[in-house]
Amino acid sequence: MIPSIHSAWRTPLMTLIGLVVVLALVAVLGRVTSARTLAGIDLTGRPDVVISLSFTPERFHLEKFQDVGRYQGWSEGQAVILSSDPEELRGLARSYWIGAIEPHEVAQ
Amino acid sequence: MTNATNDLSKMRRRPMISTAQWRGVLGVASVLFAWQVSVWVIDLPAYFYPAPRDVFAAFIDLTQKGILPEYVADSAVRYSVSVATGLGLGLAFGLLIGLSRFWSRLLGPIINFFYAIVEVAWIPLLVIWIGYGFNTIVIAIAYVVFFPVLYNTLTGVQTVQHVLINAMQTLGATRWQVLVTVIIPSALPNIITGFRVGAGFAFRGLIFAEMIAAGSGIGFLIFDGATTRQTDRVVVGMIMMGVMWLLIDRLLLRPVEQATIVRWGLVRNQGGN
Amino acid sequence: MNNAIQMPPKPRINPALVTGLLPFIVVLAAWAMAPLISDIPAYKLPSPAKVWGTFQDMLLNGSLLSEVWASLQRLATGYILGNLIAIPVGLAIALNRAVAETLTPVLSFFQSIAGIAWVPLAIIWFGVGGGSVLFVIVNTIFFSSIYSTVIGVQSIPLVLYRAAQSHGASRWDVITTVVVPGALVQILVGLRTSMAYGWRALVAAEMIAGTNGIGYMTLEAVQWYQTEIVVLGMILIGVLWLTLDRLLFVPIERVTVRRWGLVS
Fold first, then answer.
1. Would you report the helix, strand and coil content of chain B in percent, each value rounded to 5?
2. Which residue ranges in chain A fall short of pLDDT 70?
3. What CATH number matches the domain at C64-259, 1.10.3720.10, 3.10.129.10, 3.40.120.10, 1.10.10.10?
4. For A106, C82, C157, C170, which has the most beta carbons within 10 A of its beta carbon?
């Protein structure tokens, strides 16, 4: 009787554990890469940034840009966001579809 | 109860993948092949009738852009929260109504009335009251799960063998102890069945709710794909929906059901029905 | 308990009835008094009087009946068509165990996405309107019933087949005496389940892709902030489902219980 209980619970339990492990890994990986992605950005204030993507952003991405700061537009593989919120920027940097984030030099 | 089919299925467990599973794979492959053939035959543009290749490309595209994982996660979170809430409330009220004639008389009719108003009908009103988004969806979907869980808990509680309750009481058990050690375990198979029924309706309801009242999620993906004439994305959404249900059913619902029935079913048979 | 209350004997008043009505009275009273005790705007919570008035207006000018009729017509067509095709095809598939095993995962997959998920595709293919809604309903009913039928046949114990064959039954005899009765319970359950899904699919599809019907009426009213129509629609949907359930499935359940002593 005892083996049958264990085998019946095994699948959902293993799945749950596997799911938790995968999510934990993704989260950790996200944080590690986000630190690297944001290496060159000064996060003490509200930095202006340039985000590079390997694809044309869709509404899904534009909404996220607008959550981060004042989205200025997209051209030649890059999006400019002014006055970005550091916390939101960190969150964005964790996403794997972000190419690179660099400080934006406002041309004078 | 010995049964020829049961003996056969025990024997089939020896090979890693059974004949039935191989046949199932063949069935899926045949459908995919038939789909591709129909694309060649029908010969309409991809935005009208996408081929497997288009759908696969859309799948890759959505994943690379980070859209699909986030939508799946959103749907999963909404589903989990709703189902857990509905389960908890259904269980609580099921026990309450099952164990107290007063509450049964008081709440019975009005619960039956609201049961007739399907969750789909609530969404427009909820949108007016609360607006779009997470809260509306969770309320609507928890509502779906509530009723089957409640009714099945009720049945489970009502069919508890009084012999067992009396036995516990002779041993001096408090009402709480009787509840926890006799009534709930005895009703557990029914509760799980109600949970399974509710979980099924809830999943469909979630996809619908996301079409109307959300800006993310698999339901939204299906709907949005149609709005932007990206039919390949529509099909990606539909397939993901099927995959998600497959995972929920196979990896969570069925094993839980097996575990409870396997364990408590034996107890039931021994006690006699 | 009731002995303490001295009243002239009235055997008709059932205390259970009174307690059961209490919540309804409370809800109605709270609803009616809402504008007095809170500042919920009228567009969010129309008064019961307003809903009743709208009901009367729509009934008199015929619009209510035409919406209800459109929905019911669609449901009946979809239900009959869907089941009429699904059950024989399901039986045919399930007769051969190899075919049944091959197709069960596919059918299970389609059953899990049946209905709502097809609405956007239907809009692309057929446009907004009754055609799309009917397609979705037939789709829901079809996949739901065919899955039930196949599972029903597959759950017949092999013993019964062998017993029939050892009595010299021909293939047709086996079908009529073993397969159909054996699967009948599951098919009847499937009839009920497919109606439950089909009803939801009807309302939902009308909301998204319809141009008339109760579902359409209910969601459309949100755009115009005509909440009284939304509430009216909801009540109608509830009443209609209760009627459908009572008319169709209580008799089926009685037959099932009486004949096979089962509770679904």
1. 85, 0, 15
2. 1-9, 107-108
3. 1.10.3720.10
4. C82
Would you call C157 and B249 a contact, using CB atoms and an 8 Å cutoff?
Answer: no
Contact A9 B255 (CB under 8 A): yes
- In the predicted model, is pLDDT for residue B180 greater than 60? yes
Fold exhibited by the domain B52-262: MetI-like fold (1.10.3720)
Contacts of A34 in chain B (CB under 8 A): none
Q: Which residues of B touch A95 (CB under 8 A)?
A: 66
The 10s digit of each residue's pLDDT in B93-149 is 999 998 888 898 899 889 988 999 999 999 999 999 999 999 999 999 999 999 999
Q: Does B227 touch chain A (CB under 8 A)?
A: no
Q: Do B263 and A5 touch (CB under 8 A)?
A: yes
Q: Could you read off the pLDDT of C86-137 as tens digits, one per residue?
A: 999 999 998 888 888 899 999 999 999 988 999 999 999 999 999 999 999 9
CB contact under 8 A, C230 and B125: yes
CB contact under 8 A, B252 and A12: yes
Chain B residues touching residue A1 (CB < 8 angstroms)? 263, 266
Pairing of strands A49-52, A70-75: unpaired
The CA-CA-CA angle for residues C74, C76, C80, to 5°, reads: 120
Chain mean pLDDT for chain C? 86
The dihedral sign for the CA sequence B185, B190, B191, B193: positive
How confident is the model at residue B173, as a pLDDT?
80
pTM of this prediction? 0.87
What is the pLDDT confidence band of residue B269, given thresholds at 50, 70 and 90? very low
pLDDT tens-digit profile of C25-74? 999 888 888 888 877 787 888 888 889 999 999 999 988 999 999 999 99
Contacts of C233 (CB under 8 A, 6+ apart): B121, B124, C214, C215, C217, C218, C221
Q: How far B231 CA sits from the closest chain C CA (Å)?
A: 7
Report the 10 Å Cβ neighbour count for A45: 9
A with B: how many residue pairs have Cβ under 8 Å apart? 41
Contacting residues of C for B8, CB less than 8 Å apart: 158
Q: Which of B60, B64, B65 to mutate to test the interface with A (most CBs of A within 10 A)?
A: B65
**Quick check: B224 pLDDT over 90?**
yes
- Is C109's CB within 8 Å of B242's CB? yes
Residues of chain C contacting residue B207, judged by C-beta atoms under 8 Å apart = 116-117
Looking at chain A, which residue has its C-alpha nearest residue B267?
A1
A70 to chain B, minimum CA–CA distance in Å? 21
Q: Which residues of A18-34 are buried (b: 16+ CB within 10 A; e: fewer)?
A: eeeeeeeeeeeebeeeb
How many whole angstroms separate alpha carbon B225 and alpha carbon B213?
16
User: Which chain B residue has its CA at the smallest distance from C105's CA?
Assistant: B24
Residues of B in contact with A55 (CB under 8 A): 64-65
Domain ranges of chain C: 64-259
Chain B residue at shortest CA distance from C241:
B116
Q: How far apart are CA B67 and CA A56, in angstroms?
A: 13
DSSP structural state of residue C135: H
Residue among C144, C244, C264 at smallest CA distance from B201: C144
This model of the complex carries an ipTM of 0.84
